[in-house]
Structure formats: C-alpha cells, structure tokens
Amino acid sequence: MKKNILIIGGSGFIGYHLAKSCLKLKWNVTSISLHKPKKNRKLKGVNYLILDISKKKALFKLKNYKFEYVVNLGGYVNHVNELEVKKYHFLAVKNLYEYFKLKKIKKFIQVGSSAEYGKSIMPQKETFKCRPIGIYGKYKLKASNFLLQKRRKKIFPSTILRLYQVYGPNQDQNRFLPILIKACLNKKIFYSSSGIQKRDFLYISDAIDAFIKTLLNKNSDGQILNIGYGKSIQLKKIMYHVGKITNFFEPSFGKVKLRKDEALDIYPEINKAKKTIKWQPKINWQEGILRTIKYFKLKNANK
C-alpha cells in the first residue's frame, strides 16, 4: 500500500528535492505552498495545492485527503517582520497541530533552525538550553517547544530537525553559494563580507536522506535532531575554492557588513542523529560544491 505524504513548502528548494525522493519511493505526494511551483521545480506526479496555512479555515481543503506523514518546510523568508515571522513560524504550526491532531498521522516533522540555540559554544548540541537572540530563532523555538509538549502528552507524533546550511542544485539564487557561483561563472565581481565566518554546509541529498530516515524510524519520535555536516568551513575558503573550479573569482571583500549579532562560527554535533536514525552525511563539501557548480554551469549554457 502506497504511503501518503504532505509536504508544506513542497515547491521550495528542500521541498522539491524531498518530493522528488518520495516519488522515487512510489509514495503519493501532496504539496502545499502559497504560490505555484517554478517551472524548474514542478514535478509530474505531485499534487500541488495553493493555500495559506496561517489561516485555519484554509486547511479544511485537505478534508478529502489522508496522510501518514506531514513535513513542515513552510515559513516566511524575510526574518525582519516580527508579525509575519510569528504568523508563519509559530501560529501556522499551531494551526497544523489543531487540524492534524485527530487525523492519526504517523509522523510530523517540524523543520527547526540552529537559530534556536542563540549564542552558544560549538558544536551546538541538542541538550543545550536554548537562548535565541533574533525573532526568527525565538518563534522557531516556540514552535519546537509547543510540538514537543504535545508529543510528551502522547497526543502528537512530532520530531524536530534542526537544519544547518543546506545547499545544492536548484537552490534559490538569493543564497550565498548560488550568488557566488553565478558571479564566478558570469565573470562578475562578488560583493562579500570579510568572509571570516565559518559555517556548516550540508549537501541536499544528505539532508533528504535524513528526512526519509526520520519518517521511517520510530526512534525519532519526540526527538530534536541536528542535521548538518558536523564541521564548519570558512566562507573565504569556499569562495576561493569555487573560483579555482570556475577559473574566475573577483571578490570585493567588506562590501557586505556583518550583522551585530552574527556568530563567527556555527556548526552542530550530529552524534544523536547518527545513533537515533542511523544517518550520517556522505557528500563532503568539495564534492557537493563541484556538483552544484556543474548544475549552474549547465543552467547557464541552456539559457
């Protein structure tokens, strides 16, 4: 019997890749988004629904569907507007809970963030007491705590996956790596910060593997799991590496100012995910970046 999965944010970068993997597993896939998927992210076989999960009544459009799994990748891109961040990263999660609490779903995955930890020593561990600084981390943590409270009461099967920097083919071109790669391929100046920050980068196929393993593993119920590569790399090192592969890199360092609250080094400990869902990343950053450059190079050639 085919499994049925609902992906909230299924037309986004991670949602697209997750939907693609679920189709390969012969699952029935339904996507919820605020907008229709872009042409390069529309998958044959996915049922695309356009609705706003911040509105309770909108979810009743799902009344004729039955799902075993629900993955919430939805959110609000601009993390400055507190009302919108609260609406889509916390209140919308409560709406999803209210709708699905009696639907007997097997697993609800909430995508969390490293921002929930706030300023902390590295590596970040799931056992740390969270003290988020910005509004995004604040409402992500509220959503996590809300869902886990329901899980402790045994009334909702929640798991929190705290993702780090996920990258790869088909990512939006307003992100660090696509902007960098595009600038190098088009032989343009790359306007950057100092590049001294260090970040954890996880290739998209490894991230999707973590989602699938979480969905199929009962041991993940009620858990918070860090999903990242487990090591940080300096952004400047990545910039020069991309330049070496593309044979062009003309940086303008210091043009982008660091945020006052920006941490210079962020990476997770991933031992819990390794033990709980038998997962670990397979693609190192050099291989992942090479694959990503090949994708964007081909995209450039087909314009």
Question: Layout of helices and strands, plus pairs?
Answer:
Blueprint: E1 4-8, H1 13-24, E2 28-33, E3 46-50, E4 69-72, H2 82-100, E5 107-113, H3 135-152, E6 158-163, E7 165-167, H4 176-185, E8 189-191, E9 198-199, E10 201-203, H5 204-216, E11 224-227, E12 233-234, H6 235-246, E13 250-252, E14 265-266, H7 271-276, H8 285-301
Parallel strand pairs: 1-2, 1-4, 2-3, 4-5, 5-6, 6-11, 7-10, 8-13, 9-14
Antiparallel strand pairs: 9-12
CATH topology call of the largest domain: Rossmann fold
> What is the first-to-last residue Cα distance?
42 Å
Query: Helix-strand pattern, N to C?
Result: EHEEEHEHEEHEEEHEEHEEHH
Spans of 5+ residues with little confidence (pLDDT < 50)?
Answer: none
Structural class: alpha/beta
The proportion of residues forming helix, as a percent range, comes to 25-40%
Shape from CA axes?
A: globular
Strand order of the largest sheet: 3-2-1-4-5-6-11
Overall number of strands: 14
Q: How many separate domains make up the residues? A: 2
Q: Which CATH class of the largest domain applies here? A: Alpha Beta
Biggest sheet statistics: 7 strands, parallel
What is the arithmetic mean of pLDDT? 96
Report the radius of gyration as a whole number of Å: 19 Å
- Note the beta-strand portion: 15-25%
Specify the oligomeric state: single chain
* CATH architecture descriptor of the largest domain: 3-Layer(aba) Sandwich
Q: Tally the helices: what do you get?
A: 8
CATH superfamily of the largest domain: NAD(P)-binding Rossmann-like Domain
